[in-house]
Amino acid sequence: MLEGREWHKVGGASSQAIAVLKSIAPADLPESYYSLLSFSNGGEGPLAVQPLWLCLYSAEEAAQIERNGSFKEIFEGLFVIGGNGGGEAVAFDLRESEPYPLVAFDMTNIDLPESVQPIAPSFEAALKLIGRRDQ
Fold first, then answer.
1. How many C-beta neighbours within 10 Å does residue 130 have?
2. Terminal CA-to-CA distance of the chain, rounded, Å?
3. Low-confidence ranges of the chain (pLDDT < 50)
4. pTM of the model
């Protein structure tokens, strides 16, 4: 997965960490997301579209963010899986139907229509953009 691409890999998530994340996630997230975590439980690299960089959170971090409800009040319907390291979060947009689009949003702008920007219509489409500097 991500072979031949620029990706700073971390060791893969344990099956237990993924099971916990699946039990906490508010929707059935794509298996390709869990496969990426199995391959690299966190990590970072370029993204061929805005926000241009992806810092993928580990399964444990994503589960903790969901448990804490860090984004629920203001950014309802967005399941955060990472960021860009510069104030933007990367999330599944659960306000949409499956396959859930991947979006980025400015964590300081609570105006969702203005803040939320599309990355890809599905996680599978987003995978094609990870580790690449251009589309």
1. 25
2. 18
3. none
4. 0.94
